[in-house]
Structures are given as structure tokens and as C-alpha cells.
Design goal:
Elements (H helix, E strand, L loop, with lengths): L1 H11 L13 H8 L4 H13 L23 E9 L2 E8 L9 E7 L3 H13 L8 E2 L10 E6 L7 E8 L2 E7 L10 H14 L13 E7 L3 E3 L3 E9 L7 E7 L3 E6 L5 E7 L1 E10 L5 E11 L2
Parallel strand pairs: 9-15
Antiparallel strand pairs: 1-2, 2-3, 3-7, 4-5, 5-6, 6-7, 8-10, 10-13, 11-14, 12-13, 14-15
Length: about 300
């Protein structure tokens, strides 16, 4: 699971690489919170200029994008989120135990401008021997602005696409597997675009509704390392659907969070020190919110 999370974190950051050493999920929040280096800023600026980002049209703001994204012929093997970047790994429905061969990532931004910036980050992170071209170059009508990669042959299938419609950015890629399972990305992209367009359009200037963490508390703020502590969690989903939870633990203290069969969240403490326990909630509409609680673990 840790290697899988490393892959998902890399993709969320627009790194493009598909094979990475393990790294903790928490590093994403730390990197996003810090200022970008001058080299990163310069690279993003060049990418905006190269792909003409300033001229991309901005469509209306939509209420969101389905967290659960059913695709005919495919079933989700795993779902992860990193600060609103929702990553779904799919396998063919007929071979659910096959290696993952399709990844779909989405980001529901507060505005079209923010969604454009996510598309710029994905383009800046592309590491492909194939040229990134606009969807229009292959007679492909997709989103407000869209880009694809494919082999050089005119009739070759797509290997990757990324686009933005309104305030929603989406990218998908084929992950080569030994069995040769390959999604029809052109056809899948149309289904995904339709899912965005089905979402209600918001008034100009309005942002999509976020989940609300009404309660996040731990049984005791001072405990001994090794104890299992109950967590009180109450979340309101804006569409009354089922949200997705991700837990991030920081500080010198150690532990992990699990959910019991009865649905109770528990923190299993494993090492002494100060701990910040952060909860990231992604709503059924793809929007997200965070909350955190602090505790101290002693060694005696």
C-alpha cells in the first residue's frame, strides 16, 4: 500500500513518473504548504506560455464531479485523495485480479482559473517520449482545453489525456500491463466529460459546496503510547452522499488510524511524542475539507 500511495502522491504533484521509492503521504501537504522554488515557478511559467494557458476559455463553474465514477467495463481497485486530487485505479471488470491498467484523477477547484492551474501542473510534470498535443489536433472535442499523447501512427490509441471544463480538471492514463489490457481513452474521456456537464451550474462567482467536519475529537489528548483511542468523527456531505476519508499523521509521535467493523474510527498509538492527526474529507461531489486534532503520547 505504501508504494501505491507513493505513486498516487507523485501523480497528484504532477510528477509524471510511474515508479517511485516509497515516501509518506504527509509530505504532500508539507510541499503544497511551502512556497514553490524559483525553478518550479519558472518551469510553470514556461509551461503556461508553451501551451497558451492565458488563452484557454473558462466555462461555467459546476457543483462538482462524482467521487464514485463508474465506467462501463472497468471497476475501481483503489481510491486515494491528496488535498482534493482524487485518484482512482481501475482494472477490467472481467479480470478484477489483473494488474491496474487505468488511472483517472480529478480535481474540483473553486474556479476555472484554479482548474486551469491544475492542468498547467499536469502538463509541466509530463515525462513522456511522445509529444503532447491539443485534442483538436486529433479531431477530438473535449472540455474547454484538452491535451493528449499517443504513438506517432495517425490511428494510434491515446495513452494519456488531460482537460479542464469549467472548474473541474481531469487526467487519465493507460498503465501498461503484461496482459495488454488497454482502455479506450477517447471513449472514456467523453463519458467523463459528460459527467461534468451533468453537474448543476453555479451562479457566477460561486464556489462548489464543501464537506463540513462538524466533529473531530480524540477520547483523550494525553495518553500512553500503545493505547487505542476512539475518535469522534461527524462529517456533513453537501450532497448527502458517502464521503472519502484520508488520515495524515505528523509529529514525532507515531500511530495509525483504522475503522472497526462497526464503523468506529480508532487511533492506534505506537510511539511517544506530540501528534497532529489530520483528517481530509473528500465529498461525494469531489470537493474537500480538512480538520485536525492534537494529542500527546507518553512512554510510561
Amino acid at each position: 500500500m505504501r508504494n501505491l500511495r507513493s505513486l498516487l502522491v507523485a501523480l497528484a504533484l504532477g510528477l509524471g513518473a510511474l515508479s517511485l521509492a516509497a515516501s509518506p503521504l504527509v509530505s504532500v501537504a508539507a510541499q503544497e504548504a511551502s512556497e514553490r522554488s524559483s525553478l518550479e515557478q519558472a518551469h510553470l511559467a514556461r509551461t503556461r506560455q508553451r501551451f497558451g494557458a492565458e488563452s484557454w476559455p473558462q466555462g461555467p463553474t459546476h457543483a462538482g464531479f462524482p467521487l464514485e465514477l463508474p465506467l462501463d467495463g472497468w471497476v475501481v481497485r483503489d481510491l486515494q485523495s491528496v488535498r482534493g486530487r482524487v485518484m482512482r485505479l481501475y482494472v477490467p471488470t472481467q479480470t478484477p485480479n489483473a494488474p491496474v491498467s487505468l488511472l483517472v484523477e480529478s480535481f474540483v477547484a473553486d474556479s476555472g482559473k484554479a482548474a486551469h492551474e491544475q492542468l498547467v501542473e499536469w502538463l509541466a510534470g509530463m515525462q513522456s517520449p511522445q509529444r503532447v498535443i491539443t485534442a483538436r489536433e486529433v479531431a477530438f472535442d473535449l472540455g474547454d482545453a484538452a491535451f493528449v499523447t499517443r504513438a506517432l501512427a495517425p490511428d494510434a490509441p491515446l495513452n494519456w489525456f488531460a482537460f479542464v471544463r469549467g472548474n473541474v480538471a481531469v487526467q487519465a492514463r493507460w498503465l501498461p500491463t503484461p496482459d495488454g489490457a488497454r482502455p479506450d481513452l477517447r471513449e472514456l474521456s467523453q463519458r467523463i466529460d459528460q459527467a461534468i456537464r451533468k453537474a448543476p451550474v453555479l451562479e457566477a462567482g460561486a464556489a462548489p459546496a464543501k464537506p463540513i467536519v462538524r466533529t473531530l475529537s480524540v477520547a483523550r489528548s494525553l495518553a500512553q503510547a500503545g493505547e487505542v483511542l476512539d475518535l469522534a468523527v461527524d462529517v456533513l456531505d453537501p450532497a448527502a452522499g458517502s464521503p472519502h476519508f484520508e488520515w495524515v499523521i505528523t509529529g514525532p509521535g507515531q500511530g495509525y488510524v483504522e475503522r472497526t467493523d462497526s464503523g468506529l474510527w480508532q487511533f492506534h498509538s505506537t510511539g511517544p511524542g506530540e501528534v497532529k492527526l489530520a483528517l481530509e474529507v473528500t465529498s461525494s461531489l469531489g470537493t474537500f475539507a480538512t480538520a485536525e486534532v492534537a494529542l500527546t503520547l507518553t512512554d510510561d
